[in-house]
Write a structure and sequence with these properties.
Elements (H helix, E strand, L loop, with lengths): L1 H25 L1 E10 L2 E11 L5 E6 L9 E2 L2 E5 L2 E6 L4 E8 L2 E8 L2 E9 L7 H7 L1 E9 L2 E11 L5 E7 L4 E5 L2 E5 L2 E6 L4 E8 L2 E8 L2 E9 L10 H7 L1 E7 L2 E9 L5 E7 L4 E5 L2 E5 L2 E6 L4 E8 L2 E8 L2 E9 L1
Length: 332
């Protein structure tokens, strides 16, 4: 009988190991699509964690539905691959089984049972091609009851190599508000600004991204167009002729490029690039020239440059956030 006892002990050990493995595998973020009607499909996330006492907690989110955010299940039971949870705040419940790396089950709400299969969530990564398509400024106009608000979404490569994005709007009084997430999949761009509880989602075609802006439960159609807004610089023909072209210099480790151009309509415009940061086409909002001294302002960034013109050189200072640094620019 001893061999049988030993075999039984081995089987028990295997069962315990499998149980522990299943418990470990369920911890993390799971995502799936819930079809609530023929026209509506919601992404649902379960964020599952385990306490020191072995008990489980589940937090529900929906990237598509702002009202479903950080909602904790009041009852969670997970045993031998079976998950059951109640979510009183949503008057709903879920029952599912872990099978082949998937959590297959049903979401039950108000007497209706809807299939909901979730898989481990992997944050989408942007390809090099996607980053190149998005890089730079995209302007938008947002219609509001009080009028139209203009702004810019800009995508850059940070010094650490991370692809990042920001919202700038002189009309809204904001600059450099960071995106909390950027997703670009199958031509669909989704950006979120959690600090403002805002989201934009749209489909790219050519040099436009057509979609909707969501904030505070309201949805507004928005079209992003490649390029920044253009500001006509109030300079004389004589002064502009001296400035037309590209001027380049170093601000510490950063390369600064000022470009002055004349549009087809005869407007004088200017832009600022900083290649190391992936910044391109930030508009110069104001410019003045007095006795050979150029003063320009970039109101969105709260920056100002003053430099004395001497031939093909501008010798001056860059001011931003209360700091002043020397910046000499040479015309290419």
């Amino acid at each position: 009988m001893r061999p049988i006892i030993k075999l039984s002990a081995i089987l028990v050990t295997i069962l315990l190991f499998n149980s522990a493995t299943a418990a470990e595998n369920i911890i993390g973020t799971w995502q799936g699509n819930l079809v609530v009607s023929p026209e509506t499909e919601l992404k649902i996330q379960f964020i599952i964690s385990q306490g020191n006492d072995g008990s489980y907690t589940v937090v529900l989110n929906s990237p598509d539905q702002g009202a479903i955010k950080d909602i904790e299940a009041n009852s969670v039971v997970y045993d031998s691959g079976n998950l059951k949870l109640d979510v009183a705040e949503l008057s709903g419940a879920y029952e599912g089984v872990v099978t082949d790396g998937k959590l297959e089950g049903n979401w039950i709400q108000e007497g209706t049972s809807m299939p909901l299969t979730l898989i481990p969530y992997v944050k989408p990564t942007l390809s090099r091609e996607d980053k190149e398509r998005l890089l730079g400024p995209w302007r938008f106009e947002l219609s509001q009851p009080g009028g139209t608000l203009k702004g810019t979404y800009r995508f850059e490569v940070a010094q650490n190599g991370e692809f990042v994005g920001f919202v700038d709007s002189r009309d809204m009084g904001v600059f450099g508000v960071p995106f909390s997430s950027i997703e670009f999949e199958k031509g669909i761009l989704t950006v979120k600004v959690e600090s403002r509880q805002a989201e934009f989602k749209g489909k790219m075609s050519s040099d436009e991204i057509v979609g909707e802006f969501k904030q505070g439960g309201q949805q507004t159609p928005v079209i992003l167009k490649k390029g920044a807004f253009v500001y006509n610089l109030n300079l004389t023909e004589e002064d502009m002729e001296k400035l037309l072209g590209k001027w380049q210099g170093k601000l510490g480790p950063l390369t600064m490029i000022f470009s002055f151009e004349k549009t087809e309509k005869g407007e004088f415009v200017g832009f600022i690039d900083t290649p190391e940061q992936g910044v391109k086409g930030i508009p110069i909002t104001e410019a003045a020239m007095n006795d050979g001294k150029l003063t320009i302002k970039e109101k969105l960034a709260g920056a100002e440059y003053s430099g004395q013109l001497s031939g093909d050189r501008l010798v001056g200072e860059w001011k931003q956030m209360g700091r002043s640094n020397p910046l000499t620019l040479t015309k290419e």
